[in-house]
């Protein structure tokens, strides 16, 4: 693997996705209902390492 390549885990990807939809909501590109739906969908579908151990 090259120095500029990184391995991203699910937890990192989930956090990035949550940040992005929060930004969309703050910029009024999503309604509150859409935002809440997306947060719920992401958090239930993306399994992080913490959840895999349980």
What is shown here, in short?
The chain is built from 3 helices and no strands. The chain has helices spanning 10-26, 32-45, 49-53. It is flat and about 35 Å long.
Describe the structure.
With 54 residues, the chain is mainly alpha-helical. It is 67% helix and 0% strand. It is built from three helices and no strands. It has helices at 10-26, 32-45, 49-53. Helix 1 packs antiparallel against helix 2 (32-45). It is flat. The protein starts with 9 loop residues before the first helix and ends with a helix. The model has no long low-confidence stretch (mean pLDDT 86).
Furnish the topology, listing elements before pairings.
Elements: H1 10-26, H2 32-45, H3 49-53
Helix pairs in contact: 1-2
Helix/sheet category: mainly alpha
Quote the average pLDDT: 86
For the secondary structure, the number of strands is 0
Estimated helix fraction: 55-70%
Please state roughly what percent of the residues sit in beta strands, choosing from under 5%, 5-15%, 15-25%, 25-35%, 35-45% or over 45%: under 5%
Run of helices and strands: HHH
Distance between the termini: 31 Å
**Treating each run of at least 4 consecutive H or I residues as one helix, how many helices?**
3
Low-confidence stretches: none
Biggest β-sheet description: none
Taken from the alpha-carbon principal axes, the silhouette is flat
Give the radius of gyration. Answer: 14 Å
